[in-house]
């Protein structure tokens, strides 16, 4: 089963011959909502490069694991299926599940999702031609999931977007969902399809 991918990136700037102390913080409340109550296996990927030349090759690229309770006690996150799940994609390469809908105080109307990458490539999940109740309304959305991992994510629309289109209640969401290799946008897509949601 895949691991959940939660932390996207942390940037640390180091001057010549310095050893800065940095910490990585996790929002435990959010993780507990996902059913993760303790960290048993933390995977960290490092990419070291010249901050003055972003186009230069990396000086080092390494991935390591931290096992706070020991490697023998490492657990793999498995999301339990829910009766309310709406599986909109499930093929040999990826699974996409709409897990629910809510109003986020900061971002607005939200469709929560769960993504599984079954490949050995980093996958990008993207949308196009998005409409809500027949009105074109682009959400805040793009999700990258590392090889063999899973992740939670959301499609979100601002209050301003709904107000401009006089949307008070969401009856139908339509969009084209594309899944493709994040490192090779010209490669064949793993999925392209029209999705209709009725919250």
Q: How would you sum up this structure in a few lines?
A:
This protein has 199 residues and is mainly beta. It has helices at 28-33, 159-164; strands spanning 3-4, 42-48, 60-66, 86-90, 94-104, 108-117, 123-132, 135-136, 143-145, 149-157, 173-181, 191-197.
Compute the separation of the termini in Å: 29 Å
Report the biggest beta sheet as strand number plus sense, adding barrel if it closes.
Answer: 5 strands, mixed
Reading off the top of the CATH hierarchy, the class of the largest domain is best stated as Mainly Beta
Helix content: under 10%
Shape: globular
Count of all domains: 2
Question: Which fold name is given in CATH as the topology of the largest domain?
Answer: Immunoglobulin-like
Q: Low-confidence spans: pLDDT under 50, at least 5 residues?
A: 1-10
- Please, how many helices? 2
Oligomer: single chain
Q: How many distinct beta strands?
A: 12
Quickly give the CATH architecture of the largest domain.
Sandwich
Spatially, the strands of the biggest sheet line up as 1-10-6-5-4
Q: Strand-and-helix sequence, N→C?
A: EHEEEEEEEEEHEE
Descriptive report:
The two termini are 29 Å apart. A hairpin with a 3-residue loop joins β4 and β5. The model is unreliable at 1-10 (pLDDT under 50). The strands form three sheets. This protein has a five-stranded mixed beta sheet with strand order 1-10-6-5-4. Strands 7, 8, 9, 11 and 12 form a five-stranded antiparallel beta sheet that branches. It has two domains: 3-73, no CATH class; 86-197, Immunoglobulin-like. It is globular. It is mostly beta strands and 199 residues long. Helices cover 6% and strands 41% of the residues.
């Amino acid at each position: 089963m895949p691991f959940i991918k939660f932390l996207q990136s942390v940037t640390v700037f180091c001057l010549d011959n310095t050893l800065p102390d940095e910490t990585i913080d996790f929002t435990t409340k959010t993780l507990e909502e996902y059913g993760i109550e303790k960290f048993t296996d933390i995977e960290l990927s490092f990419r070291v490069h010249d901050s003055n030349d972003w186009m230069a090759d990396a000086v080092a690229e390494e991935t390591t694991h931290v096992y706070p309770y020991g490697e023998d006690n490492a657990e793999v996150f498995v999301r339990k299926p829910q009766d309310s799940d709406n599986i909109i994609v499930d093929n040999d390469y990826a699974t996409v599940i709409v897990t629910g809908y809510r109003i986020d105080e900061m971002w607005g109307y939200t469709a929560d999702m769960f993504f599984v990458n079954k490949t050995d490539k980093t996958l990008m999940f993207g949308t196009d031609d998005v409409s809500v109740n027949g009105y074109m309304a682009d959400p805040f959305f793009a999700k990258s999931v590392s090889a063999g991992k899973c992740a939670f994510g959301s499609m979100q629309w601002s209050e301003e977007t709904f107000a401009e289109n006089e949307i008070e209640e969401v009856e139908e969401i339509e969009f084209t969902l594309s899944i493709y290799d994040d490192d090779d946008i010209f490669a064949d897509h793993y999925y392209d399809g029209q999705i209709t949601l009725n919250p």
